[in-house]
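Researcher: We're teaching a course module on how sequence relates to structure. For the next exercise, students receive a sequence and then see the predicted structure as tokens, so they can try to spot secondary structure elements on their own. Here is the exercise chain.
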Amino acid sequence: MADEELNVGLLMLIAYRSMEDRIFAALADSGYGGITIAQGRILAQIGADGTRLTELAARTQITKQTAGFLVDQLERGGFVERVPDATDGRARLVRLTARGQEGADFANSIAEQIQTEWSEHLGAGQMRALRKALTRLREITDPYA
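Model: And here is the predicted structure for the students to work with:
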């Protein structure tokens, strides 16, 4: 099947998976090994002030029980902590620890390197157009935008 025959969603998935694989390999090489893709997807959804478990489950499209299991693993690994939610005394937030934030910062730096490579491959104009098109598409595809 030629590239032009692949649907746009699959083409975006291929690029995303490539980036994800490279980020996880770099994390493993840098002492952050043992984080699974499922755990990484949870980590990527944690906001600066913390995020409720129910929201993490919804954003990653998994059950609350599965999200809880993954958060338990991340907590044992020292990447996250559970803290009281100041806006609701009954609720708890999942928040990155210092180790978790260091890992997130490192992962983001690898993502930046990959985007630079993609920009060099496509050219600055095409990369800007790609970013603009995907940002615009987000208006109708991202329920959390």
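Model: If you want an answer key for the exercise: The radius of gyration is 17 Å. Residues 98-122 form the longest helix (25 residues).
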